[in-house]
Predict the structure.
Amino acid sequence: MQQSIASVWMKVRGEKLENWREKEKLKADKRAEDRELLGRKSSEMLLCVSISIHVPLCQCS
């Protein structure tokens, strides 16, 4: 009886740990994706600003 309770407890803890690791990986992937998107937006903004300096009627959004 004692051994089965311990094995169930270990199984539950293992599942929780695996779930936590998956969530942390998803969060890290999301942060990396957000950083990449921000970098692209910043690059586009800098390009638009540099174009508008040379061409005052820039239609960049």
Notes: The first helix runs from residue 2 to 54.
